[in-house]
Amino acid sequence: MDAITQRTTSGRGRLYDSILETIGNTPVIRVNNLAPDGVRLYVKAEFFNPAASVKDRLALNIIETAERTGALKPGQTIVEATSGNTGIGLAMVCAQKGYPLVVTMADSFSVERRRLMRMFGAKVVLTPRSEKGTGMYMKAVELAETHGWFLARQFETEANADIHEATTAREIIGDFAGDRLDHVVMGYGTGGTVAGIARVLRKERPETRIVLSEPANAQLIASGIVQKRGPDGSPAESHSAFEPHPIQGWTPDFIPNVLQEVIDTGGFDDLVPVTGAEGMAWARKLARQEGILTGVSGGASFAVAMGIAERAQPGTVILAMLPDTGERYLTTPLFEDIPEDMDDEEKALSESTPGYRLG
């Protein structure tokens, strides 16, 4: 069978009624060129979701759960605080379902995230970066209370971890059925991914170590300092161990209530700090040596996975979660060394033939 025949496909075997039906079932992909010899290293590529991040899952479940319970009324405006990916996922879902969406976001997050949400029809209200995550959160609360809007509450809602228990974790169980799975590595934003995965793996794959990571300069969990909360589980103030960090989407300036479940129940085995510089370096290596384009958060998870792989016994199997695509980071330091114009080598290539050269 020749190469073309091997790649011939026959479609997915179904017709989708909307973009929302394509959420989930993201592939697990082997890392071939970067993995140490004797270790099988995989990534779960959440950028295969239709709006290119893991947050598509919780965005859909938050809205559909609220629809079922009657908490969300037809045509009601939805409001949420987000670093970007949840807002983009919500904007996609709201566009399909016909809900107005208002997003609050600190102005420190990448410009392309704002533009993507606005492309989907959402309104984006920026808050001062000096007020950090709690500032954008409190702004969303104010807007919801003032205007009677539905507050999505990604940091507190049970719908967050529930969707990862029902889908993300089940996909991992299915993909590694009958095979080893020694480590699963991820960071946290809301904590929904690790909470949902831990619920399932603790019962069905107890031998698998769950490795959680957080920024080296913002180790909220490792500090042991308890997060102060309001009666509804919302953050009462910024966590004292927080410092601004470049891993967008990870570790807001408070410990989300969704993540508290993982802390209280021992839902992880190891807690590993990682620097933003390491996350960027490994994201670039994944792109250049594996053809896998992920963001700083994915690079950070992969950096931790590589650290484990380099010390692991032969035969070890490791899975790292890649939350989103590298295209979310075009205006961030991840791409600062990637030029827009031709470099000297490219100019030399252009000049090596006489035609079709820029002046």
Q: Which value, in Å, is the CA radius of gyration?
A: 21 Å
**Unreliable parts:** none
Major β-sheet, in short? 6 strands, mixed
Beta-strand segment tally:
10
**How many domains make up the coordinates?**
2
The computed structural class is alpha/beta
Q: Strands across the major sheet, in which order?
A: 1-2-10-7-8-9
Structure description:
The chain has 359 residues and is an alpha/beta fold. It folds into 2 domains: 3-48 and 168-335, 3-Layer(aba) Sandwich (Rossmann fold); 55-151, Rossmann fold, CATH 3.40.50.1100. Helices cover 39% and strands 14% of the residues. The chain has 12 helices and 10 strands. It has helices at residues 3-6, 55-69, 85-97, 111-119, 132-147, 158-175, 192-204, 220-223, 257-265, 276-290, 296-311, 344-351; strands at 28-31, 40-45, 78-81, 101-106, 123-127, 150-151, 183-186, 209-215, 270-274, 317-322. The strands form 2 sheets. It has a 6-stranded mixed sheet, with helices on both faces. A hairpin with an 8-residue loop joins β1 and β2. α2 (55-69) crosses α3 (85-97). The protein is globular, with a radius of gyration of 21 Å. The chain starts with a helix and ends in an 8-residue tail after the last helix.
SSE layout:
Layout: H1 3-6, E1 28-31, E2 40-45, H2 55-69, E3 78-81, H3 85-97, E4 101-106, H4 111-119, E5 123-127, H5 132-147, E6 150-151, H6 158-175, E7 183-186, H7 192-204, E8 209-215, H8 220-223, H9 257-265, E9 270-274, H10 276-290, H11 296-311, E10 317-322, H12 344-351
Parallel strand pairs: 2-10, 3-4, 3-6, 4-5, 7-8, 7-10, 8-9
Antiparallel strand pairs: 1-2
